Amino acid sequence: MVQAGVFGATGYTGHELISLLEGHPHVEVAFGTSRAEAGHSLRDLYPQAPDLTLIHTQKARLEHVDVLFLCLPHTQSASVAAAGLAAGVRVVDLSADFRLRSPQDFQKWYGVVHPAPDLLAEAVYGLTETARDSLPAARLVANPGCYPTSALLALYPLARADALAGPVFIDAKSGVSGAGRAPKQHTHFVEVADNLSPYSVGRRHRHLPEMEQALSGWTDTQLGVVFSPHLLSVPRGLLSTIYAPLRGGWDEDRVRGEVAAVYEGEPFVELLPPEEHASLAHVNRSNRCALGVSVVNGSALLTSAIDNLVKGAAGQAVQNMNLMFGFDEGEGLR
Amino acid sequence: MVQAGVFGATGYTGHELISLLEGHPHVEVAFGTSRAEAGHSLRDLYPQAPDLTLIHTQKARLEHVDVLFLCLPHTQSASVAAAGLAAGVRVVDLSADFRLRSPQDFQKWYGVVHPAPDLLAEAVYGLTETARDSLPAARLVANPGCYPTSALLALYPLARADALAGPVFIDAKSGVSGAGRAPKQHTHFVEVADNLSPYSVGRRHRHLPEMEQALSGWTDTQLGVVFSPHLLSVPRGLLSTIYAPLRGGWDEDRVRGEVAAVYEGEPFVELLPPEEHASLAHVNRSNRCALGVSVVNGSALLTSAIDNLVKGAAGQAVQNMNLMFGFDEGEGLR
Amino acid sequence: MVQAGVFGATGYTGHELISLLEGHPHVEVAFGTSRAEAGHSLRDLYPQAPDLTLIHTQKARLEHVDVLFLCLPHTQSASVAAAGLAAGVRVVDLSADFRLRSPQDFQKWYGVVHPAPDLLAEAVYGLTETARDSLPAARLVANPGCYPTSALLALYPLARADALAGPVFIDAKSGVSGAGRAPKQHTHFVEVADNLSPYSVGRRHRHLPEMEQALSGWTDTQLGVVFSPHLLSVPRGLLSTIYAPLRGGWDEDRVRGEVAAVYEGEPFVELLPPEEHASLAHVNRSNRCALGVSVVNGSALLTSAIDNLVKGAAGQAVQNMNLMFGFDEGEGLR
Amino acid sequence: MVQAGVFGATGYTGHELISLLEGHPHVEVAFGTSRAEAGHSLRDLYPQAPDLTLIHTQKARLEHVDVLFLCLPHTQSASVAAAGLAAGVRVVDLSADFRLRSPQDFQKWYGVVHPAPDLLAEAVYGLTETARDSLPAARLVANPGCYPTSALLALYPLARADALAGPVFIDAKSGVSGAGRAPKQHTHFVEVADNLSPYSVGRRHRHLPEMEQALSGWTDTQLGVVFSPHLLSVPRGLLSTIYAPLRGGWDEDRVRGEVAAVYEGEPFVELLPPEEHASLAHVNRSNRCALGVSVVNGSALLTSAIDNLVKGAAGQAVQNMNLMFGFDEGEGLR
Hints:
Four copies of one chain form a homotetramer.
Chain A (H helix, E strand, L loop, with lengths): L1 E6 L4 H11 L4 E6 L9 H4 L21 E4 L6 H10 L3 E4 L9 H8 L13 E2 L14 E3 L3 H15 L7 E7 L14 H4 L3 E3 L8 H12 L6 E8 L5 E8 L6 H12 L5 E3 L17 E8 L2 E8 L3 H15 L10
Parallel strand pairs in A: 1-2, 1-3, 3-4, 4-6, 5-6, 7-9, 11-12
Antiparallel strand pairs in A: 7-10, 8-9, 10-13, 12-13
């Protein structure tokens, strides 16, 4: 059995991850950490969670585990990751600390000097379907953000085939769990209920550079992403509706053919039939990504739905771990 | 024009109150206070609110107003009320500070010595329909809690007629705005959405003594209230479903007749037709209380719906002020 | 592998059941029927459902299966059950057709002559925890209604110990899936959202006689149930808050002791710790029943939460089938 | 007092309209019609509605009113409008019957021959802020669709100034009341709750030609609209997020300046401050349109929020009527 340690077990991602790992036939949760809740059971916070007594971050024995999952706030993951790697433990980091390859970009977007720039070079960006070759040997995986997971899975086949003329408009809508468990004014039930709010639109959200970095690895065209996240009055689920002008010669058949070819046989990415578009109901509480693909007036109109806590976070982390350890990719995810 | 000052303008109750007062033909809002938001406009917090620049609590000039509305946390209202009365200003207190007549009870339920026990004797408990005689001359009105407003309006006619044998079971369900605007874990959207949670059930909620005190003024029977509040996944609205064994001789006709007689002509209390019961849709965003009344197996089955922010707080405060100042009772409330 | 046939596969219960059965290691779904959707895949209706091609009711080959699950409207199940039993197939009926033992009661509450009164005598009322002895040999199981499942699991230990003095007030709140999938005015999103509505309160709901029949089998005391269902603005989940005056000598310790003793070791019923009460979050999407137990002023205050589609319908049906066929009781339910 | 007749009083739009008209100081509702509910009170359907006894469509006495509001399904309005005009009554049609100027377009998008093509020429497209000159003399006003109202108010200043290079991507999200009151599978609470679904995306929704027709009246540039409506799990409110590549020379200052100039002094259109974008909370239950305007990478990023039942339907109808009859534009709308 693979022994897994989870840092930051009490957030929505940590809870989702531990619930998934508890059902995984080849993994045992060795510990879950929490600063504020050490000594309590995870079940005190989530009535259906496993009865796992949380330990303080500093009491975690890294040498007793095979893999660390880091569900910590950005900038807090890096040092734990470094310690884990030094102890010979493989790391899946669900924070943003190792997503951007350049420490300058990190500093620009996160406002602090990167805490472990030496590790950036070896971090594998774990958008599983695009990283399958690198995962078996990876020591450090940067699990993608929820918005990038959704948008990039839709854009990957077209960027890679150089079908996109740019700019790319990503209109994304996320459930509230994506904003984290710490209570804030904007996640108060009364503020969210019956509302829909755009936030950090344009080029202001931290998931933007992550998307542009990935796209630039797939195509030489400067795509110029415009990204508008919206907060939905639902607890979970994320839908990106994407408008992307195409180069000449790319009609709906060709676009659909390309997407179909790239994702043929993928266990967790489903291209929907023509004229069907992706909704949250296609994916919620699963590790699936549902893709709808149309071409209208020379532009691709793509819809991409995921559960932000599963394929957008904890599920993809397990999927990556499965490939790192040689398990079936879907183990623990069905 | 009556000049009104509002302490605690930024909470859900304060906002609702200011919105109502802005539409009132005989009242002007002279100021609204906030500790944390002084200098900002109320519109920065509520995009549809009046553009009222909030002032710090300590800058409020009590002598410039005719009436003070206190939407402060309990124990903070009392001293402001005292200062207001000393300045000759009439006070409607929406906190709990003047609801319980006995300072011992206050201390027992709120955990601190009452800050202004000398004022308790003159405070009028402002359940409007039961307090109409006292309001015109009142200097200090204790606006009832939301749960007591709902439950007591249902029980008043029967308690007063000595129809109840006891015990009284009050199963109440409230929208989340009743829990206040300060973000807490239990008001996080993700915790509330798709959930329904009982809390402080039995005899543990602070609205219990307020209900028993009022009932004891209407009947000599010791009724023994059991009270179960539940948190609903809706932003506003409050429904109490009440089960109350009746004394002999009280069948449905007699019970309905009593309720109908007591509330005949009331502008804001509506007895629903036989077999119709009250829902949030009957009352939301209005100052109405809708009452459904059945008798089953010798027990009254009462449903009483209000909007917790209107009849359960700000609306009833305006209704009380109207009577204090000799205006039409419904002014500003339609 | 046990071969299972599902009649009425397209309702919320049928869909939930097929999803559970697809994950059951010892069961195969041989067919699912639908009048309106024959020829279509279940996935056309539910995007995450198994890709099961629905067949017309009349094309179902009863002789090819070992067990039939009937998710049909009441009065339609009985004849299919009779045909199944005649073909040697065991039947779990999720409709109301075999829940009431007396054909007169059925006619009174459902308005038609019972279609198969000869089968009533052998039908086992499948409230699993109270029927475990009868299930292994049962040919015909009447799966309980969702409201009775919730209320009866709470009341069973106390009724059986003759602790209840009566009357029993059951204030129940259900998610909208309990009202079925056929679109009606009162299940329109706009009617339900932000609302809470009592309906069929008192002694008017068809689940009342089912509850009283079960209680009368456990205690000689005539309890006189008053039952108030409410429609919640959530898709699933059911909470009953129950107020039940106790006989002398039953304090909280004794009541909790009785409940604990009855459910000790039960895999799907959990007595919560003192002062903790049951919420939908305790149980949703699981087959669990969470019970909160207090005693206040001489009355039991019980909270009982289930997922109406799982423990309240499809999950309990699988639980019953597991016992009928000698499988582990929790197979397919975790 | 202007006497108003309302056809189709029981839908969400009809109900909203009658509620507004009841508060209008210069209008009386002479009648409201309903086929299915004639003889009942509107309050039987909406517990807070005015107690208006509905009459059968055929019993409406057109000659007794000054203005007709038609809240009928498309193709049913036209003949009533014709009869009204023949009787000398002015008409505000909230259906789609007179929105498209060409009977061929109507036939293409609505699948039937236009019932009253002779009236198309005189119908005024009632997007109030763009039609103020034509309304005082108008006999027949085609009240715009909810999606076009939202999108066109955002695009009008830029189209008119020839700032748009095309294509225009309109990503719109609407509350469920936009889908009408008749219960359908896709408006069932359980289908909508916690979901977000795109539908009729691309160039398939009937509001598309309405938008393109209006745009073509403001600019000679063929803009090529791509339009993606989504169904939100909220009862009301509509937000359009619009991505529109700009011609050279249009930076954010110039774009904002143009929008500000066009809407200066408008009572119901508000340009939000820089970096603030429109949410449903800005507008719900009001006749306001809130506009957020940014320029990113050479494209305008516009957000436009309305309440679909108010500014998107009944409120705009009242606003239009006010101008038709010489009342203050905001009468009855605050």
